[in-house]
Amino acid sequence: MENDNTTNSYDSAHLAIQDTLYVIGGKWKLVILCLLVSGGKMHFGELSRATGISPRILSKELQEMMLNKLVSRTVLDTKPVTVEYSATKYAKSLKEVLTAMIKWGKNHRDEIIKS
């Protein structure tokens, strides 16, 4: 009986991790989220410069993130038209995860440099 519970727990964790990676996985999504969660609103050009992501790839990533309710897009009434992106309240729920990943990444870099 315990084995069934362990298997169910593993299956549940496995699905949760798959779902999470599907939404925030890839080379750029976490970088974009870090900027928007910590920095607030940013124009498309600012995001492209800050991340070094090509406009084509950035546009694709932002569209996927909007579909997953992580990023909101606001078209400003300016000449020329300006588009502003921000993290949604839902995306901000990832702040602890992002902070933990930043901490782990720094520790990992230090560990590798020591070797």
Automatic annotation (TrEMBL):
<keyword id="KW-0805">Transcription regulation</keyword>
<dbReference type="InterPro" id="IPR036390">
    <property type="entry name" value="WH_DNA-bd_sf"/>
</dbReference>
<keyword id="KW-0238">DNA-binding</keyword>
<dbReference type="InterPro" id="IPR036388">
    <property type="entry name" value="WH-like_DNA-bd_sf"/>
</dbReference>
<dbReference type="GO" id="GO:0003677">
    <property type="term" value="F:DNA binding"/>
</dbReference>
<protein>
    <submittedName>
        <fullName>HxlR family transcriptional regulator</fullName>
    </submittedName>
</protein>
<keyword id="KW-0804">Transcription</keyword>
<dbReference type="Pfam" id="PF01638">
    <property type="entry name" value="HxlR"/>
</dbReference>
<dbReference type="InterPro" id="IPR002577">
    <property type="entry name" value="HTH_HxlR"/>
</dbReference>
<feature type="domain" description="HTH hxlR-type">
    <location>
        <begin position="15"/>
        <end position="113"/>
    </location>
</feature>
